[in-house]
Amino acid sequence: MDHESDTTGVTLLKGDPKIAIIKLSIPMIVAMLLMSTYNLVNAVWVAGLGADALAAVGFITPLFMILVGLANGLGAGATSVISRRIGAGDRNGAHATAVQAVLMSIAISIAISFLLIAFSRPLMILFGAGNTVDLAVEYGNIVFAGTILILFTNVGYGILRGEGDTKRTMYVMGAASIINIVLDPIFIYYMNWGIAGAAWGMIVSLVLIASVQIYWFCIKKDTYITLSKHVDIRETRHIKDVLAIGLPASCEFFLMAILAVFINILLVMVANTDAVAVYTAGWRVIMFAIIPLVAISTSVVAVTGAAFGGRHFEKFPVIHNFSVFLGIVIATIIAILTWLFADQISFIFSYSAEGAHLAPSIAAFLATMCIFYPFVSPGIMSSSVFQGTGRGLSSLLLNVLREIVFMASAAYLLGVVLGYGEHGIWWGLIIGDILGGITGYVWVRFYISRIIRYT
Fold first, then answer.
1. pTM of the model
2. How far is Cα 109 from Cα 131, in angstroms, rounded to an integer?
3. Where in the cell is it found (predicted)?
């Protein structure tokens, strides 16, 4: 292909922001829904092993969220910087950014894998895993060994988003998810690997994704960005820009992990490990439900970055308002569906004899937490606008307010101080989500007005 001309994705990034958000988001929604379908199915198969296995996954989840957060953070940093370079017409800078981000992801993953595997058991004891420690360590060590795959593939996604190409991501994530869904029952039950089988299914899918990405970037080279040894990576300006977004974005997921650990501890305080199992199963449904919002937010980073790089600041109000509105509409529809079918959804996590007693609690959790969905949109879209303009610390501070100041505090106040137990904790999360969404929206509107006024 002619690498001197813009690809369809790059042309899309530079055009109408509403059209760009929709066209970039649709493939990402499909891809993330397929991947989340796997995560949901994975939880279903693990639930068949009993409540202890499901709780064990729940205790590993905060650490896994840190890995995913770091990977997504680096990916978001790559997306932001690459899209800004493209918007500014600096293609060589976009190439250098991509190569530097990949090399950095490999180096970081090696160190993290070693640390997590070495300290997995003490961490599980610290998190209060109790009689599920052995299961948690068995599952976690396999996941931690795949850190290099988690980071590399997410940086690859970030590069593709940065150049406005989300269809490739849809193809590879979709194929990997389907393969994973097929492999899980084989590894867990047919090969009798138990909880370890669920982890190995994820590793196999990541290997597939990484292989395809390497083929696209390094062998076929039909993308706007290529990974070549001939790229000059001595310029550190771009990698500093990636870290300026990536590290705060990674910390945002670290905050989510801290929140998850904190909620698990609160649930054990006011109830027992069954409450953790309910929260683990229900939270997977929530993560699945808000996938369209996450997909839209990744597109917002790229579209905002291209507008910022090209100094088209008049697009910012359109990008922000349209993405928030679109997210609220979609989330409200999903919330209604969740409330209507809470009992049916709960059954998929409690079909085994060992987990049947969890069904009423999971249904109650879903019927309550569906209120959470619409208020995610203002917060997540506002964070994406900050990331797209290079304001990683502002995005991080917004999430500190939402996760720690609002959600954790409200959960503790209602669940423990006021004595409403696990139901109080659920409502605390909802109230914190609402306050965080409102704060994020107002803050970004003020930021946009200042940009337009003084430029």
1. 0.76
2. 30
3. Cell membrane
